[in-house]
Structures are given as C-alpha cells and as structure tokens.
Specification:
The chain has a domain of 243 residues: Rossmann fold. Helix 1 crosses helix 8, helix 7 runs parallel beside helix 9 and helix 9 crosses helix 11. The termini are far apart. With 386 residues, the protein is of the alpha/beta class. 41% of the residues lie in helices and 14% in strands. The longest helix is centred in the first third of the chain and has 24 residues. The chain is globular and about 65 Å long. It binds nicotinamide-adenine-dinucleotide and thymidine-5'-diphosphate (TYD). The site of thymidine-5'-diphosphate has 12 residues, from helix 7 and strand 8.
Length: 386
Amino acid sequence: MSSNQKTETQATRGAAPILVTGGAGFIGSNFVLDWLASGNGPVVNLDKLTYAGNLANLASVEGNSAHTFVHGDICDGALVARLLAEYRPRAVVHFAAESHVDRSISGPEAFLRTNIDGTFKLLQAARGYYESLAGEERERFRFLHVSTDEVYGTLSPDDPAFHEETPYAPNSPYAASKAASDHLVRAWVHTYGLPAIITNCSNNYGPFQFPEKLIPLMVSNALQGKALPIYGDGRQVRDWLYVIDHCRALQTVLKRGRVGETYNVGGGNQRNNLEVVRTLCALLDELVPESKFRPHQQLVKYVTDRPGHDRRYAIDARKLETELDWHAQESFETGLRKTVEWYLANSAWVEGVTSGAYQQWVAQNYGNRGVEPATVQGTTTKEVLR
Ligand code: NAD
Ligand code: TYD
C-alpha cells in the first residue's frame, strides 16, 4: 500500500459505504473514481493488487476520507466477513477477477481460483452478513456481480446479439470461470435469497486499461514503433463499451435494478479488430504528427491466432435501456479519441505498469506468434488494412 493511501483502520464513518472488490483494476478503479466524484458516498476497496491492479489508478483519491483501500484477497473468506461486519456496506460491487483470455489459455488455474472460488467465498461472506441485517439495512443491501458477454459464447455474422436469455456457452477458460461465477450468484439468489444482480457487459475500453488488452496494447506498441499484432485474420467483432458508460450502467442497476435479474450492458459499437486498429492508427497519426512511425498502420502485423478465438460478440442492451433508462453516452469515435488522448497524456502511467513482469508476458504471448517483442521500425508489415 502506498504511504498516502488511507489504511483500513481509518474507516470512513457516517453514510453507509459500498464494498468494491478489484477496485484497483481497470473498470473497478474507473468505477471508484466516478462513484466518489459523483458524491455517492464512501467506498471500501478490497484488492489483491495482482499484476492488473495498480494503486496509481487511484492516485487522484489519495487522502480522500471517503476512500478506504484494503490490500487483500477475495479468497480470504474471514477477511471479507470481517470487512463486511466492520464497515456494514449497503452493497458489494464485485469486479475482482482474472480477466485476460490469453492468460487464461496459458495459465487457467488462477482463473478458477479467483473467479470461481473467490466469488464463492465472497457470496458466502455476503450471505452471512445479509442474514445478520434487519430493517432498512437488510432491505437495501445488494450484491452486484460484474460479468462478461463472453459467457454466451460466440456469434456468427448474422446472429442476433446476445440477450439475457441467450444460453451460456463459454469457450475460453476465462469465459468458463466467469460463467461458473454467474451460476453461483444465481444459485445464491435462488437458494439463500441473497439480493444479487448480475450484469454481463461487452468489451470495455478507456483510461487505466492494462496494456495487455487490444486497445491499450496497440496504442502503447504504436507509440514505440513496435509491431501491432493482429490475431488470425483480424475480422473478429467486439461490441465496444466506453468504461464510464459501463460504470454509469452499474450505478443505475444498483439503484433501480431488480433483484435476481441479469442486465446486459453494451455500447452498440460493433467493430472488427482491423477496424479498431485502423481507427487507432489514424488517431495517432493526427494526434502525434511528429511521430517517426507515421503512418502507424504500417506497423500492423498478422500473427498466429488465439486458440478457440471467439468470432463475434454483440450485446442487446434493450432491457437495461427500456427498464432502467440507461443509455451509452459515447460513440466509439468519441470514446476512442478520449482514450487515446488519455494514454498520450499519461505515458508515465504506462511506463509504470509495463515493467519487468509485463515484458515477460509480452515475450511469452507474442514470442511464439511470429512477432519479436523487439522494435519493428515499421518495415515488415503486410499492407492489409484497406
Ligand atoms: P482487471 O484485470 O483490470 O482488474 C482486476 C482487478 O482485480 C485487479 O485490480 C486485481 O488486482 C484484482 N484481483 C484479482 N484477483 C483478486 C483477488 N483474488 N482478490 C482481490 N482482488 C483481486 O479487470 P477489469 O478489466 O477491470 O474487469 C473487471 C471485471 O469486469 C472482471 O470481473 C471482468 O471479468 C469483468 N469484465 C471486464 C471486461 C473488460 O472489457 N475489461 C468486459 C466484461 C466483463
Ligand atoms: P482482448 O482485448 O484480449 O479482449 P477479449 O479477448 O476479451 O475480447 O481482445 C480483443 C480482440 O482483439 C480479440 O478478438 C483478440 C484480439 N487481439 C489481437 O488481435 N491482438 C492482440 O494482441 C490482442 C491482445 C487481442
């Protein structure tokens, strides 16, 4: 823990807090910052600080008495039970997970541990806490489980988008572990009456995303003149959701969502990976005119595909839109511009998170795919992005 983060013994008293898990990761930290900025009340933030968790994401709330950071593991049931008893949160918002598909392929164990066993431990602790509540505290308590559209499997080009009744068909170890966690949450609602809600969202992008995921990886590599590795033919489609739109959806679901329900969250921005990278490269050409790697598109390199690569994800968010009146505010173009501008203005953050362990991951994931982790200097690219 950094010296200027509050310790857990300096608990915020007064308005009931929420307990956030994984609040030092990409979506969790955006959620915490947005929650605090919106004056929604205190946050207790439980995070193990894996490679994906960074206290630097929370630097702007250092010293904020409404934010209490606890360095710990959701698999530690006793710790979670103690935090619930001590802080008496009005909700648990559960982000903590292993979240990267490629890492789940090379090392699935951590995914089963955190995503399945960790969710189980959290549910058990939340159940014990909920059963101890009475009156208004019991009435308002919610467990919000943040999950993914990847539990639904893959779509063909003409298939309708995933809706809340789409059968589960997870294809990667990551998706299978999240599907398992969703099933646990459902069972804890059905069997024990835990007032939980599940959200399944599409691919997020925005500030503080770790540069192992497509968009920040491409920005980081392009700025250094490294290859932009496109898996397979690059025609895989994702439905991109700006992270703050997602955070607002979660706030909406917490306020007005119905217990036991699932809500799909999507940005309505289906793009294939080539389109995403092409748009990113054009933005970088514009925003970094002095770059010696312009046009950045020349850095694109096709590499060996991901095993079991899902072809298309798309979200039907009409339930959330019509029932709870949530609507995404960012188009892909406006959200991507904000994102690239953020990465350009925060190069120190990128440098801070791409140290030793990150370089090992890059060597492991891309070394066997036909891309050397070394600088490419823009000379080996196939001209395919048309
Ligand atoms: P992330 O990998 O950036 O962050 C995960 C956070 O959880 C990190 O801060 C990490 O330190 C923490 N963590 C991991 N294991 C832990 C443990 N055992 N105990 C406590 N903390 C632990 O993930 P993200 O992209 O912010 O995703 C957050 C949630 O949203 C995940 O549940 C993920 O499955 C889901 N989701 C993400 C996306 C996306 O596009 N990023 C899309 C759909 C769903
Ligand atoms: P990713 O950001 O890992 O999210 P997810 O696998 O959860 O959708 O990947 C998004 C898409 O980008 C996916 O189709 C895989 C592809 N991709 C690449 O082509 N190259 C890369 O280096 C990475 C990380 C992803």
